[in-house]
Amino acid sequence: MSNTFLATAVTGLGTALVIVLPFSFGQEPLWTFKLFSGTIGEYPYASVNAFNFYSLLGANYAADSATLFVFSYHTWGMIFIVMITAYA
Question: 57 with 38, same domain?
Answer without folding.
Answer: no
